[in-house]
Specification:
Layout lengths: L2 H20 L2 H4 L10 H20 L4 H14 L1 H10 L5 H25 L2
Length: 119
C-alpha cells in the first residue's frame, strides 16, 4: 500500500469528520434510534473519531493502528447506513439508491483500511 493511498483514506475521513461536526443534522437522522441518549452525541463522537483516524493515518508511525481502527470504525457505523436505508424506503428512487448504495460501500472501505494497515 502506498502512502498516497493511506493519505487519501485519511483525507476522506478528515472530510467526513469535518462534515459531522460542521453540519451534524443529516447525520443525527441516521443514528439508530435504539441507541441510548441523544443522536447528536453519536454524531459528534463519530466526527471526532474520523478526525482522529485521519490524523493517525497521516503519520507513518501511527498508520497501522489507525488503519486497523478505521476498519473497525467502518464496521461499527454500518448500522447507521442500515437505518438510513430503512428510513428512506419510501423516499424518491434517487434517495433510495443513495441509501442502498451506501450499504455495500462499507466493504471496500474496510478493505481499503485493512490494506493501509499492511506495511
Amino acid at each position: 500500500m502506498t502512502s498516497r493511498s493511506a493519505l487519501s483514506l485519511a483525507a476522506l475521513l478528515g472530510v467526513a469528520g469535518v462534515a459531522h461536526l460542521a453540519r451534524p443534522r443529516p447525520f443525527d437522522r441516521i443514528v439508530p434510534r435504539s441507541l441510548p441518549g441523544p443522536a447528536r452525541v453519536y454524531t459528534y463522537v463519530s466526527g471526532a473519531c474520523e478526525l482522529a483516524l485521519a490524523a493517525g493515518l497521516a503519520h507513518p508511525r501511527t498508520r497501522r493502528g489507525a488503519a486497523l481502527a478505521a476498519a473497525g470504525f467502518f464496521v461499527a457505523v454500518f448500522p447507521a447506513n442500515v437505518q438510513m436505508a430503512i428510513d428512506w424506503r419510501d423516499a424518491t428512487p434517487a434517495r433510495r439508491a443513495v441509501a442502498w448504495g451506501r450499504l455495500p460501500l462499507q466493504v471496500p472501505l474496510v478493505w481499503w483500511a485493512l490494506r493501509a494497515a499492511r506495511r
